[in-house]
Amino acid sequence: MTVARRPPRAAGPYVPRLPGRRCSGVALDLGSARTRAWIAGRGIVLDVPTVTFPGSGAVHPIQRGTIVDTPGTARMLDRLLGNRLPRFGRPLVVITAPVLDGLAFRTAARTAADVLRPRAVLTVPGARAVALAAGADDTRPLLVVDIGAHLTEAVLLVGGAVTDARRTALGTGDLADGTPSGHVTDAVVDMVTAMLRQDRTARTRAALRRGVLLSGGGALRPDITHALPDRLGCPVRPVPSPHTAAVRGAACLISSAQRHPSIDDAV
Fold it and tell me: What is the C-alpha to C-alpha distance for residues 164 and 13, in angstroms, rounded to an integer?
């Protein structure tokens, strides 16, 4: 019989455990550039670079929306959160995931999150988490554009469910290498145009009339937020604190998920 052993914790700043307290939930947004974590009762406790240190230098275990190093991601989570969680009690972990190619990401993320000794691990599409954080009305079609550091997604939600999605491996992190911000804007316009052309219903058009919900670091860049409304021909509304919207939306799911009877049997 093979016994799974917890990997050794990498060296890092020590944060005392709180043995007398239970942690009911942890929300995670594992981005290519930044990892953000929310702990029940404490709010957002981490907003740090997504890096691990297997040897002499830093390695990025997540690249353009893909977990390329699952053990490295586990080591990173253990280093960042292992000493922040109570010794006793098993948290419910909710992780945001890209909409496209999400199956591979969700599988790897669940494996990596096992290092936190979770009671259960749930995943939520990043666009759905953003809509929750924004308090958006999900009874009508909603178009969410999430411009991250190395990945941009355009997602159509109807009734809170994903009905169409596009992605491009381009984001704000590429602008530091000399890529013009107009390339990001062009990519968003191309994705939305493709959605309009292939939608045999009126849902994409209805979502555009309502206005695009913009999240991610791209929503903090005036050169992007000022160009998109003219290019798309519709209102574009950045969500409050757009760079942390996904993890805050994942946190919104924890209290409702805790009450679901399937969670008790999900481990």
Answer: 43
Enter the tokens of residue 32.
């290519």
Q: What is the largest CA-CA distance in the chain?
A: 62
Q: Smallest Cα–Cα separation from 31: which of 148, 145, 147? A: 148
Q: Within a domain: residue 4?
A: no
Please tell me the total count of domains within the chain.
Answer: 2
The C-alpha atoms of residue 238 and residue 25 are separated, in whole angstroms, by: 27
* 99: phi then psi, degrees, rounded to nearest 5: -75, -50
8 A C-beta contact, residue 172 and residue 148: yes
pLDDT for 20 equals: 36
Three-state DSSP state, 120: strand
pLDDT tens per residue across span 2-21: 333 334 444 433 333 333 34
How is residue 214 written in tokens?
């913009």
User: Rounded to an integer, what distance in angstroms lies between the CA atom of residue 184 and that of residue 81?
Assistant: 33
Q: Are 145 and 126 in contact (CB under 8 A)?
A: no
Other Cβ atoms less than 10 A from the Cβ of 135: the count is 11
Residue type, 62: I
Token digits of residue 54 = 């297997």
Residue with tokens 């990173």: 76
**Residue 41 above 80 pLDDT?**
yes
CA 179 to chain centre: 24
117 found inside a domain: yes
> Would you call 197 helix, strand, or coil by DSSP?
helix
Specify the pairing of strand 120-125 against strand 34-39.
Answer: unpaired
* Domain around 201: 137-242
**Distance separating alpha carbons of residues 233 and 99, to the nearest angstrom:** 25
What's the whole-model pTM score? 0.85
